[in-house]
C-alpha cells in the first residue's frame, strides 16, 4: 500500500512502512485491526448453510478466501435487522441461525497469514473496548451475549472459562468490556493499539504533497480541508496528544494514506437546549449518576432525582437509582402506549428489567400514584427550563403537541438528561457535516450518518477516508463487523492497484 507514517516518541520508533490509521478502539476498531493483522477468513469446506440461496453460492467458493470474492453478489437477497448488506452477510456466515438460536456452525475458518498483514495504528482515549469501558458495569446488554463477540473467539466459552454465566443469554457490560480487552491480547493485537490518545485534527493535505516533503514540525492546527483526491494520491495529517504519567499531554503528528473513523456516538450527549441546562445540578450521563451515588450527594433522604428521557439509558438510570432508594421523577415526551417507545418493541421474557421500568412508567403517574414507592412518572411532559436551587419547570403535552399544557415547578436534587448522544467529530472540518448524507444537518448515527459506500465503507465524498459502526449507520455489534470486512477488502484492492502502477 502506498502509505507513509511519521511518529513521535510515544509511538516508538519512526516507521518507513505503509500504514493505515484507525480512530477509535471500540468493537469496530478492534475487528478491523484483527483483519489488518493478517487474520483472513476462508469459506469452510463442506459447510452447509440453512439459507439455500447462500448455500449454493458458498458451494461455488468452498475453501476460498472470502476477501477475494464478490461480496455484493454474496449479500444479494439477505434480509434481517439491519440495512447493511455486508453486516447481514458477515452475520449470516458466522451465525447462520442467529435469529433462530440454532446450532449451525460458522461457515468461516480463520488463518493468520502475516505476509498479508497491513501496518496500522488504532488510537483511543481509553483501554480497548471504547465506550464499553466507560459504562456502568452491572448493566445488562440489550443484545444477546453471543452477538457481542468478535471473530474467532467464542464469548460464551470465554465466560465459562472465567466461571461466569449469561443471564437470559445476555451479559453485563463489565463482562463485555473485559472480553474486548482480552480479545486484543489473545489475538496479539496490542502492538497496534495506542491508548490515552486524543485526536484533535484530521485533514487532507494538498494532492501534490509527498512524504519526503513532510516534517513533524510542519504540522499546523488547521482542521480537515475537505479537498478531493484519488485513492493513490491522498495523504492525511493526523494531530493529537498522548497522555503521559502525571496527567500531562504530549502532542503528536502522523501521516497516513487511509484513515478509518470508528468513534461511535457516546462522546457528546444530546442536550435539550433549554434555559439553565448548564447549571451544576444538571447532568447528561449515567456516569454522573454513579458518582453522585458513590459520594452520597443523592440518596433516600434527598430531594428527587429527575430523569428526562424514555430510552434504554434512561431506564438504566431509573433502575440504578430506584434500587438505591433514591426518590425519582421520570419525565418523557411520549405516551406510554406509543408504539415507537422502545419498551413496546422488546420481548418481555428476554428483557424483564426494562418491562419493569415500562410498568413503572405506565402505572405510577403524578396524579394517581402507584405501587412503586418513591417513583413518579410524568408521561407526555417536556422540559421548559432549569433554574438555580434545583427548580425545574415541566409542561404537559396535550393533543396535537401544542405548548398549551399546564406547567409545574419541581424541586430536585439532581437532573439527569438522557435523550441520546451524537459523535464528536470536532477534529474534522465543519464537524464532518460535509461528509454526511445531509450536509445541512449535524452528523447523527440514526438520522444523518456519514455517506459511505455500502460495500467498502469509504466515504463517498472523500477517497481514503472510511467510517465504521454508528458513524456509518451500523448500531449493533452483531452487524457492524461487516464494515471492517468491507474496509479491509477495499484496502487490499488498493494495494494491488498501487503495485501495478
Summarize this entry quickly:
Helices cover 22% and strands 19% of the residues.
Can you put this structure into words, describing what you see?
There is one protein chain. This protein is α/β, with parallel strands linked by helices. The protein has helices spanning 27-36, 52-60, 71-75, 85-94, 155-161, 173-186, 286-294, 312-323, 352-363, 477-480, 482-499, and strands at residues 20-23, 39-43, 108-112, 120-124, 193-195, 197-204, 236-243, 249-256, 258-261, 268-269, 282-283, 305-308, 328-331, 375-378, 381-387, 391-396, 407-411, 414-417, 421-422, 465-467. The chain has eleven helices and 20 strands. Strand 7 and strand 8 form a beta hairpin. Helix 4 packs across helix 11 and helix 7 (286-294) packs parallel to helix 8 (312-323). The chain is globular, with a radius of gyration of 24 Å. Its cofactor is NADPH. Keywords: Differentiation, FAD, Flavoprotein, Growth regulation, Monooxygenase, NADP, Oxidoreductase, Phosphoprotein. One of its GO terms (biological process) is negative regulation of cell growth.
Amino acid at each position: 500500500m502506498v502509505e507513509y507514517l511519521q511518529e513521535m516518541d510515544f509511538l516508538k520508533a519512526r516507521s518507513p512502512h505503509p500504514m493505515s490509521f484507525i480512530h477509535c478502539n471500540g468493537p469496530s476498531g478492534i475487528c478491523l485491526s484483527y483483519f489488518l493483522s493478517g487474520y483472513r477468513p476462508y469459506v469452510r469446506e463442506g459447510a452447509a448453510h440453512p439459507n439455500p440461496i447462500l448455500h449454493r453460492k458458498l458451494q461455488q467458493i468452498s475453501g476460498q478466501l472470502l476477501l477475494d470474492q464478490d461480496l455484493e453478489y454474496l449479500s444479494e437477497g439477505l434480509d434481517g435487522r439491519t440495512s447493511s448488506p455486508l453486516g447481514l452477510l458477515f452475520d449470516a456466515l458466522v451465525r447462520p441461525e442467529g435469529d433462530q438460536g440454532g446450532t449451525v456452525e460458522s461457515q468461516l475458518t480463520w488463518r493468520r497469514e502475516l505476509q498479508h498483514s497491513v501496518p496500522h495504528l488504532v488510537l483511543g482515549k481509553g483501554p480497548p473496548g471504547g465506550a464499553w469501558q466507560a459504562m456502568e458495569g452491572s448493566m445488562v446488554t440489550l443484545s444477546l451475549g453471543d452477538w457481542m463477540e468478535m471473530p474467532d473467539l467464542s464469548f460464551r466459552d470465554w465466560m465459562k472459562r472465567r466461571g461466569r454465566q449469561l443471564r437470559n443469554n445476555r451479559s453485563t457490560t463489565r463482562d463485555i468490556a473485559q472480553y474486548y480487552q482480552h480479545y486484543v491480547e489473545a489475538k496479539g493485537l496490542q502492538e497496534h493499539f495506542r491508548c490515552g490518545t486524543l485526536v484533535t485534527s484530521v485533514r487532507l493535505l494538498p494532492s501534490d504533497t509527498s512524504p519526503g516533503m513532510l516534517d513533524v514540525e510542519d504540522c499546523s492546527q488547521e482542521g480537515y480541508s475537505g479537498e478531493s483526491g484519488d485513492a493513490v494520491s491522498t495523504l492525511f495529517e493526523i494531530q493529537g496528544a498522548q497522555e503521559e504519567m502525571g496527567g500531562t499531554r504530549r502532542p503528536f503528528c502522523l501521516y497516513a494514506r487511509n484513515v478509518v473513523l470508528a468513534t461511535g456516538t457516546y462522546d457528546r450527549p444530546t442536550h435539550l437546549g433549554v434555559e439553565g441546562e448548564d447549571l451544576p445540578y444538571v447532568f447528561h450521563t449515567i456516569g454522573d449518576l454513579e458518582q453522585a451515588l458513590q459520594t452520597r450527594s443523592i440518596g433516600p433522604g434527598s430531594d428527587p432525582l429527575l430523569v428526562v428521557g424514555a430510552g434504554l439509558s434512561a431506564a438504566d438510570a431509573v433502575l440504578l437509582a430506584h434500587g438505591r432508594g433514591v426518590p425519582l421523577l421520570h419525565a418523557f415526551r411520549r405516551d406510554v402506549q406509543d408504539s415507537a417507545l422502545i419498551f413496546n418493541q422488546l420481548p418481555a421474557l428476554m428483557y424483564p428489567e426494562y418491562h419493569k421500568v415500562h410498568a413503572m412508567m405506565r402505572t405510577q403517574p403524578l396524579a394517581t400514584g402507584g405501587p412503586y414507592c418513591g417513583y413518579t412518572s410524568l408521561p407526555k411532559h417536556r422540559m421548559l427550563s432549569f433554574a438555580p436551587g434545583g427548580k425545574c419547570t415541566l409542561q404537559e403535552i396535550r393533543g396535537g403537541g401544542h405548548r398549551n399544557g399546564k406547567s409545574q415547578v419541581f424541586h430536585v436534587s439532581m437532573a439527569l438528561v438522557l435523550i441520546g448522544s451524537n459523535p464528536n467529530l470536532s477534529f474534522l472540518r465543519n464537524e464532518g457535516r460535509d461528509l454526511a448524507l445531509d450536509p445541512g444537518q449535524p452528523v447523527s448515527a440514526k438520522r444523518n450518518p456519514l455517506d459511505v459506500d455500502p460495500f467498502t465503507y469509504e466515504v463517498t465524498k472523500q477517497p481514503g477516508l472510511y467510517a465504521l459502526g454508528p458513524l456509518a449507520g451500523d448500531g449493533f455489534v452483531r452487524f457492524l463487523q461487516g464494515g471492517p470486512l468491507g474496509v479491509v477488502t477495499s484496502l487490499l484492492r488498493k494495494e494491488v492497484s498501487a503495485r501495478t502502477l
